[in-house]
Protein: DUF4265 domain-containing protein
Organism: Heterorhabditis bacteriophora
Amino acid sequence: MSFHTPVKALNPVDTKLPDHVVKGAIIVDEHMPEWNSAVVLDGNGPMSTFIIIDKQSGDLDDVLHCVAQELKLPIGEKYSLVFEEPCAFLTKNNLDRVAHGFMLTVTAAPSHYVRRIDEVFSALCDVQKVEWALIQLNSFSADPCFVSSFYELSSIQRLYDLLNDDRVNGYFMNCGKFSLYAYIFPHW
């Protein structure tokens, strides 16, 4: 008997994941405390992790819970995963966009984004902050999840009031597509 000859023939093992299971990376949004002041990022904590998502189950709450634990984020806060291009919050409706090797960002929930933008629009005292808020609004303007949250927590009338404000009128043109989308959204 030879050392190099197996006693029994070995069967090949298929290590490929099912099509509905995908592996990828999650990175922490370093600007998350700007959206949710209750979240303080620990400089010594991990800033990224690898996860597996089962698209068939569609249980994003479980995924977010695991991500928060893995990245040592404060428990009890609401988080969301975001696609980079185009900016959109991950929901059951767009879960099919997630493919093997994905890279998503964990950040504050859409409600935190809307509240922060709404705070800036309410004050209107700092034009630079208003410009920043309009840029953020524009980046998520095509995301149904964000628009839905905006309708729920803010007032579309506030956007129309901004259109009439001479101090921010030039910046507001950057957000024209949000206004159009926000007008159309309730009619779907």
